[in-house]
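Practice problem 4.
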C-alpha cells in the first residue's frame, strides 16, 4: 500500500484537493466572472439622495430650483401660516429637534443621525394621521341625554 511516485505518462489522480483537469479553472479566467454583487443602498442613503434632488418651485411668482428638503420645509411653513394646526405642530417639533447653531448641521452625517432619531420617525409616522384628522373632523356628541 505504499504510494509509488508518478511517472510523466500516468493518468492524473483525482481526490481530495485534486479536481479533475476538465473542471479546473481555465488559465486567465476568473473563478467569479461577475464579481461580488454591489451593496444595495440602505434607507438612510436613499433618503439622503432623494432629499438632495432638485426640483423647480414657484416662489413669489418666480421659478426657482431648490432641493426637495427645502421644498418640503417651505410647504410645511406655508401650511402653518395658513392656519393648519397639524402643520404648525409638526413645524414646531422639527424646530425643537434641532439645537441652535447652523454649523453643526452642515454635514451629511448629522442629517443621517437626525433621520435615524426616534423623534423624526415619530413625526413622519404621525403626519398622515394628523392630515386625515384635520380633513375629516369627528362629529361631536350633542347633549340630548340619550
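Answer key:
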Amino acid at each position: 500500500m505504499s504510494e509509488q511516485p508518478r511517472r510523466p505518462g500516468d493518468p492524473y489522480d483525482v481526490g481530495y484537493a485534486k479536481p479533475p483537469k476538465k473542471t479546473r479553472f481555465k488559465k486567465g479566467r476568473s473563478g467569479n466572472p461577475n464579481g461580488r454583487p454591489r451593496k444595495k443602498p440602505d434607507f438612510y442613503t436613499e433618503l439622503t439622495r432623494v432629499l438632495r434632488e432638485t426640483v423647480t418651485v414657484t416662489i413669489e411668482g418666480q421659478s426657482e430650483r431648490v432641493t426637495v428638503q427645502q421644498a418640503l420645509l417651505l410647504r410645511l411653513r406655508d401650511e402653518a401660516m395658513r392656519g393648519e394646526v397639524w402643520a404648525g405642530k409638526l413645524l414646531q417639533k422639527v424646530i425643537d429637534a434641532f439645537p441652535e447653531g447652523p454649523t453643526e448641521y452642515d454635514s451629511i452625517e448629522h442629517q443621517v443621525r437626525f433621520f435615524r432619531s426616534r423623534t423624526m420617525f415619530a413625526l413622519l409616522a404621525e403626519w398622515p394621521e394628523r392630515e386625515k384628522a384635520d380633513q375629516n373632523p369627528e362629529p361631536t356628541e350633542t347633549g340630548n341625554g340619550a
